[in-house]
Amino acid sequence: MAISRIAIGAPGEASHPDAIRAAFGEFFSMLIFVFAGEGSGMAYSKLTDNGSATPSGLIAASLSHAFALFVAVSVGANISGGHVNPAVTFGAFLGGNITLLRAILYWIAQLLGSVVACLLLKFATGGLETAAFSLSSGVSIWNALVFEIVMTFGLVYTVYATAVDPKKGNVGIVAPIAIGLIVGANILAGGAFDGASMNPAVSFGPAVVSWSWTHHWVYWAGPMIGAAIAALVYDNLFIGDGAHEPLPHNDF
């Protein structure tokens, strides 16, 4: 069972230079990702004079997030593992691939990276709103919760299959591409309903800067539940105790 491998971490780990460097890696990867992803939405709003959402706008959002995440994961892979998502970090923790202390460092860095990116966007655009995630008309909180659970399950399952599994072989080379593609595809599926966050930090930054917290809990609960299910399913069904090789932090 993956849960038997959960580790708290050594007392001095949080202040270890490697852990600090990894946290900075997560901070900058998240800043890059949110600046491009949220920025593309703000650019769309400016070009359309805050017009209503369109299919072309959804495709643009999907592509911008897929490309930006591909880059963010790639540049962070050799430093922190390129999680760029508190839910991914949570899934890695449940699988025994990262300690709790290092995970907490990652979460703080990821949230700060998102907030800083949104503050920079607000300044750079002359005060345009960094719109928080919200539910579309006719979408209930339970609809959105299921969307976020299933979409994040797909994301973290992909992370495990391409980046965590010790048997991944050469598949690991395409991990950032696969991770970016599944996020882009999920935005096409769920973006029109609840914005398709799949990432608590991506939702947190705009919420802080715009100070809009309506239904915000959905964008934490859904991704964390989906990540936990994906981590436990993949680890127990396809890795198992015998095949498990805890990965060093510089690999994931």
The proportion of strand residues reads under 5%
Total E-strand runs: 0
DSSP helix fraction: 55-70%
Please state the average pLDDT score. 92
Cα-to-Cα separation, first versus last residue: 20 Å
Q: In DSSP terms, counting alpha (H) and pi (I) runs of 4 or more, how many helices? A: 8
Quaternary structure of the protein: single chain
Structure classification: mainly alpha
**Sheet having the most strands:** none
Instruction: Give the overall form.
Output: globular
Order of helices and strands: HHHHHHHH
Computed Rg: 17 Å
Low-confidence runs of at least 5 consecutive residues: 244-252
Protein architecture, described:
The chain is 67% helix and 0% strand. The protein is built from 8 helices and no strands. The chain is globular, with a radius of gyration of 17 Å. The two termini are 20 Å apart. Residues 244-252 have low confidence and may be disordered.
Question: In short, what is this structure?
Answer:
With 252 residues, this protein is mainly alpha-helical. The chain has eight helices and no strands.
Summarize the helices and strands and which ones pair or pack.
Layout: H1 17-47, H2 55-76, H3 86-94, H4 100-124, H5 141-164, H6 175-194, H7 200-210, H8 218-243
List keywords for this structure.
252 residues, mainly alpha, 8 helices, globular
